[in-house]
Known about the structure:
The chain is α+β, with helices and mostly antiparallel strands.
Amino acid sequence: MYVIECLDGSLYTGYSTDVLRRFKQHASGKGAKYTKAHPPKRLIYYEQFDNQHAALHAEAEFKKKSRKQKLTYITENESDLPLLEAGKMIQ
Length: 91
């Protein structure tokens, strides 16, 4: 599960088995319909799960939260994983 902050400040949540590849797709305009209309600024959070079912469940539950609840969740579950910005992606 991953969370992208878009240029307009909105948050986009998705699921992928390869977050870096998926973020590059979003940043290049080939991602979801939402991120085509709301270009991504940076990847602000991602979390790994043991299986697809757990990841999809976490994504669905996260999407039910208010923006404030989402930001609190991200702050409370911060990890040491590197974050990515659209113009400064790892090659």
